[in-house]
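Action item from last week, closing it out:
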Amino acid sequence: MLIINADDWGRSVAETNAAFKCYRAGRITSASAMVFMEDSERAAELAKENELDVGLHLNFAERFMANKFPAMLGDYHNRIVRFLMRNNYSQLLYNPLLRNEFSYSYQAQAGEFVRLFGKPPSHIDGHHHMHLCANLLLSKVIPTGTKMRRNFSFWPGEKSLLNRAYRGLVDRWLARRYRLPDYFFDLTQCIREKKLDRVAALAKSSNVELMTHPIAQAEAEYLMSETFHRILQRLEIGGYALV
């Protein structure tokens, strides 16, 4: 099965609207929602009204933009953002001084999701993939059995041996606690490297997630294209709820 998942649902009005247009046209099957952001409230109502399969897009990469959220949450969350966005390697390091902050921010975001949507998320992933940071990987804050986004999948030769070994190690760690799709790809990369046919072939026998950001013009145009429509006609498609 192919899962076409739109990230950043609720981050802004423009991002929600771009994803919703694709959903109405049958070009995405699920979305990942951000809470405590500019359009979180409206986006939740839109998703519920249209029965969109929605997961939680954990945000540890940028400040919350909503008008109201607990002051302690803002303080804790900003400490996390400063640490993780310091450099490209911060997410690989476990920071014991932020253990409580990560736990509190996760619980607050998960609780806000339930308040907005009236039910738990169908899956969990992360803004800029920060759900894979060391502080979450080495904690037990996300419940066992949760459906989770894995690392990007690459064919041999696309990344260094060390890079693929590290990703494989993380995915094996995730698979011990969580339910993962078999493969995960990025739409922009697939368009650029012309590998949608290979992704589609995998989706005939495996569960494959294809991440998209419809706010990006090139991605939106491809999603709405006749070429992509023909690919979808050959496949079983669905959201994380069906995995």
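Closing note: The first helix runs from residue 13 to 24.
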